[in-house]
Amino acid sequence: MLGGYPIEGRGAVEIAASVERAVGTGKLEPGQLLPPMRELAVELGVNPNTVAAAYRILRERAVIETAGRRGSRVRPAPATTGRDHIRVDVPAGVRDVSSGNPDPALLPPLAPAFAAAAAQGDTEPVLYGDVAVEPDLARVARSAFDADGVPDGPLAVVSGSLDGVERVLAAHLKPGDSVAVEDPGWGRTLDLIPALGLRTVPVGVDDEGPLPGGVREALEAGARALIVTDRAQNPTGAAVSATRARALRSVLREFPQTLLIEDDHGHGIVDVPLHPIAGATRHWAFVRSVAKAYGPDLRLAVLTGDDVTLDRVRGRQRLGPGWVSLILQRAVVRLWADGSLDARAVAAEYGRRRDALIGGLAERGVASRGRSGLNVWVPVPDETGAVARLLHAGWAVAPGARYRMSAPPGMRITVSTLTPDETESLAEAVAAALGPAPARSYV
Fold first, then answer.
1. 176 in the Ramachandran plot: left (φ > 0), alpha (ψ -120 to 50) or beta?
2. In the 8-state DSSP scheme, what is residue 342?
3. Residues 151-199 pLDDT 10s
4. Cβ–Cβ < 8 Å for 301, 159
5. Separation CA 94–CA 377 (nearest Å)
6. What are the b/e assignments for 398-422, b being 16+ CB within 10 Å?
7. In what helix (H) or strand (E) does residue 308 lie, and over which residues does it extend?
8. How far apart are CA 140 and CA 372, in angstroms?
9. Are the CB atoms for 139 and 337 separated by under 8 Å?
10. Where are the alpha helices (DSSP H) in 45-176?
11. Checking phi first, is residue 232 left (phi over 0); if not, alpha (psi -120 to 50) or beta?
């Protein structure tokens, strides 16, 4: 049976454990078909309901997947670092425009804020049982949410946007559930979802955000959650417009059971207004990080949402890390208050750098996208060839395969540190890498 591996057990738990052991040791491989339930019941001498219960346990644990009459198969191995290996190794002398990092020169100084927060910690030590959210942080964050039209809700502090997304997904979904995601979208999110035992359902994106028709199709097909990047979408730079937000809310109202997660990781570096979607569904969450504006090492994001979602997130957080350091929270409050970051000036500077590259490419007949954020997305007919030719020309860009599922090929260029002279050289190199203009038609 199954290439010589015998499934054993008399009870559902024993049968499920036997299959899971075989998967863990590699004796049952990803994609391998399991016996029909009645057939296995006969071989084991048990009731078919026992096997059905065992298969249900395995599905809930994301060990197998069932596709109706096509039977049950061992699920593909969860991706934990799957897309990280799709990168370009940057040799010495090659200009790296693939990282997605902010410009260090546009980050505010951290030392004064952390010195003040540490001094406060010396006089008011944080002990077990203290509040998990610094009151001043909650006040400032809530005020900013109110100004941006984010619905009222309780607050939590998490270790960055992706940590918040993971905690919200885990609070509501079970292995095997489907999540609608932007395509192209953030590679870490595309890896996180299968690592949680969930399925990804791609939704197309234009400059105004996820396409409402694609969202509707995903929800009609059974997706239980939708993740939307409100601004500075990675990798395309899309930003949800007011018109698109209304259209998405209209679709979501038809599926009020959907878990909506909004990611505003670009707060502080964007030059377009926020148009939140939250409020159209029963369960929702909105996460806003400080990494892009104040530095990637500040692993902090503020999370709000409906009462049930936040109660689950905070309850599970208490059982794990407990809280995000209040010294870090107090430092962030001081960074917000001291005026060392001119968010409008920073957003405008990133906007100039994006527009300069997009304009330079357009002059050479190359279409590209980048409405907000740090990156420009360039559709290409031959992704591998274009990336390789640019590397040979002295430019390392990010292959689009890191960010897409069914979307057409492309490549991501980070503009955050580009100088005007470099922008012209890069635009020329991209045009040369893609070949003569008549050959470049991206439909």
1. left
2. -
3. 999 999 999 999 999 999 999 998 888 999 999 999 999 999 988 888 8
4. yes
5. 20
6. bbbbbbbeebebbbbbbbbbbeeeb
7. helix 307-319
8. 24
9. no
10. 48-60, 111-123, 135-147, 161-172
11. left
Q: Which of 337, 325, 335, 331 is closest to 133 using CA atoms?
A: 325
Cα separation, 433 vs 283, in Å, equals 46
pLDDT digits (tens, 9 = 90+) for 393-437: 999 999 999 999 999 999 999 999 999 999 999 999 999 999 875
Q: Go through the chain and tell me how many residues it has.
A: 443
400 — phi, psi (to 5°)? -65, -20
Strands 283-289 and 301-305: antiparallel
DSSP state of 276: -
Q: Where are the alpha helices (DSSP H) in 9-103?
A: 12-25, 37-44, 48-60
Q: How far is CA 434 from CA 61, 108, 353, 406, in A?
A: 45, 38, 22, 21
pTM exceeding the 0.90 threshold for the entire prediction: no
Alpha carbons 120 and 420: distance in angstroms, whole number? 44
| Residue 158 near residue 164 (C-beta atoms within 8 A) | yes
Give me the residue label for tokens 């509707």.
216
Tokens of 308: 């049930």
Tokens of 402: 């890191």
Contacts (Cβ under 8 Å, ≥6 apart) of 291:
160, 161, 265, 297, 298, 299, 300, 301
SS3 153: coil
Q: What is the DSSP letter of 321?
A: T
